[in-house]
Amino acid sequence: MYLNGPSAAEQTDEYAPPEVLFGSKWVPFDPEKPQSYDSWSIGVVALEMLLGTPNVFSVDQRTTTILSTKMKKKGATPEDIRHALYLAALSQFCIYIPTANAGKSWPLRAGDPLHGSAIVKPTCTMEDFHSALRARDPLGTGFDSSSNLLLELIWDLLAWDTKKRLTPKEALAHRFFQTDVIEKETSSSWALPFLLPLSSLLSSGEHNALESQMLDPRMDFNSSVPDISEFVCPRCGKSFEDYNSCHRHANSRRHAKFCTFDRATLPPCLNAHSMLPAHPTSGYCDIQGRRRVIEDFHTIHLDSTHQFYGVFDGHNGNLASKYAASSLYKRLVKRFAHLDADVRNNGTWKEKVSQNMAATFEDLHEGILQAASLSPGGVMKDSGTTATALFVTEEAVIVANVGDSRAILSQGASYNTVVNEM
Predict the structure, then answer these.
(1) What highest taxon heads this organism's lineage (predicted)?
(2) pLDDT tens across 175-197, in order?
(3) Do both 179 and 246 map to the same domain?
């Protein structure tokens, strides 16, 4: 089985370890530890079972765009870019850490396409592995600390270094499957194994494969955004250690509505593993802000004839923003069913679009008022939301908004705000 290995055409790339996917010459497996190939495949299958989806080593669209554009400017080949995106995904899982190798085989310096990049993780901890799993979890619940032994086992099966990667035999000896055995004599004169109390085998909060358990879907680790230590008023240049102080300063002196900070510290997109099909001309990225309470929602619809993007910034509760996110598209798409035909044949199509858009927002407003009036005890009666909508067809790009959620039109090196704050 481990004499010559499968050919490159015979293997399934999604389950093949990184050492056999890239390089000037195809190598079926590490000759010193050939079982490491199978260990990687087992680890990938385990991840797929945990997440309920294949193709777990994917990156968010923002990372894909930034890295692809950067490498294309340096003359990278499609194979180079594919390699870099794969390494970026492994980096988010804390399987691969970008290096400072001084090789010349990659166009971005140092032989490593991710060297010095802010879009991948420079260090790896179990917390980072948790975060990567949660970002790709369709339910967004992730795993609590009771799953640490299982995740540790998977992590060891997916070790980048083949010499550190567990073999199947070593995996079965992992603490996740471990029990201590004591012998107890029986009348039959042969020994029966009995399990010692699991509390004697496991550290606090851990569980293994032999214990029945209820998993708490709440995350019990710090999943906050990276620390940002400096916020700057864009007009006077005064810096602050926290955003609220800077924001109060800028607003009270009418210097600006927002403060600036180092964009390189932005966290990765929440939905790194997209639940939507890839679209050739559009993409999205959702980032969690500093507030603990989420009142903002977004909607994305990718149809064969059109695309819709909606952003809703709620306040005084999330009823209005959640209602708008779930119903604006359905109201809008009915009125824009013949938009392309109108653009081609109707000289007054812009006026018709404006009328339909205004009517849609009025209907949405009435729906929110009715929903708020039905909230228990009227707790959501003051709930409100902004709304910024983008509707794209083959013939037209329609943008509309209510409130201060901005839309920016970018072309080349310039940009314009295409909606006004209302």
Answers:
(1) Eukaryota
(2) 888 754 333 333 433 333 333 33
(3) no
